[in-house]
Design a protein that fits this description.
Helix content: 25-40%
CATH topology of the largest domain: Zincin-like
Strand content: 15-25%
Shape: globular
Order of helices and strands: EEEHHEEEEHEEEHHH
CATH class of the largest domain: Alpha Beta
Largest sheet: 4 strands, mixed
Strand order of the largest sheet: 4-5-7-6
Radius of gyration: 19 Å
Structural class: alpha/beta
CATH superfamily of the largest domain: Metalloproteases ("zincins"), catalytic domain
Number of helices: 6
Number of strands: 10
Distance between the termini: 35 Å
Length: 222
């Protein structure tokens, strides 16, 4: 069966990675030295996995986009909080046990929420990375927040750790698992059994947190 590559990204990496995007398209991340034949052979080996992944995506109930109306609920650190539209305020979006948004800013509600989530994410992720790095002897170079849609976190070859702002919607123990996962990549770049053994030593409950992300990750969005 022929599987089409929708996006091919060449990078400084050791192995080929396949990502089935939310729209069902296939992104391939490959080492610069990998030939097209190497890539297509790998895709053929993973054909069953690609098909299963696409079937799972079709089965997921589409979560309606937010409309930024009174009473809508938004997740933060594993809890959901109600939104109220209020008279003009600065900043347009505030949080104090619940969200308040200037009624006049409703049309740009998504932008206001993303900006707020990103600010919270950088503060919280920096604190958690700093704490666990000191506790376990890791030395990350930098912490960044991005808007990745298919990865909760990543670790570059230069020691920069990236997290998607969407992760700040998850419970803190799930965030900690992702933090420890990426810190572990500072020592072991791949996902070999040795890597998972290291993750388990840092986070004994990691399988439960991975399962939570698989089951609830689609809901961590606007």
């Amino acid at each position: 069966m022929h599987i089409q590559i929708d996006k091919l990204v060449r990078a400084k990496r050791r192995s080929i990675a396949l990502i089935v995007e939310r729209d069902g398209s296939l992104t391939v991340r490959a080492p610069r030295r990998a030939t097209l034949q190497d890539i297509h052979d790998f895709i053929q080996e993973k054909t069953d996995w690609i098909i299963r992944s696409r079937e799972k995506l079709k089965a997921i109930v589409q979560i309606p986009k937010k409309e930024y109306r009174d009473g809508e609920r938004f997740p933060f650190l594993g809890q959901e909080y109600e939104l109220r539209l209020v008279r003009p305020q600065r900043p347009a979006l505030k949080f104090d046990g619940g969200f308040t948004l200037s009624a006049s800013a409703r049309e740009r509600g998504e932008q206001a929420f993303i900006q707020w989530y990103k600010a919270q994410a950088l503060t919280i992720f920096t604190e958690r990375v700093t704490r666990y790095a000191a506790q376990h002897g890791f030395e990350p170079k930098q912490i960044k927040v991005n808007s990745a849609k298919t990865r909760w976190g990543s670790c570059t070859s230069t020691g920069t750790i990236n997290f998607t702002w969407r992760l700040v919607m998850a419970p803190l123990d799930v965030i900690d698992y992702v933090v420890l996962h990426e810190l572990a990549h500072l020592k072991i770049k791949n996902h070999s059994p040795r890597f998972w053994k290291l993750v388990e030593s840092l986070c004994p409950d990691f399988k439960r947190h991975r399962k939570w992300l698989r089951e609830h990750g689609e809901k961590l969005n606007l």
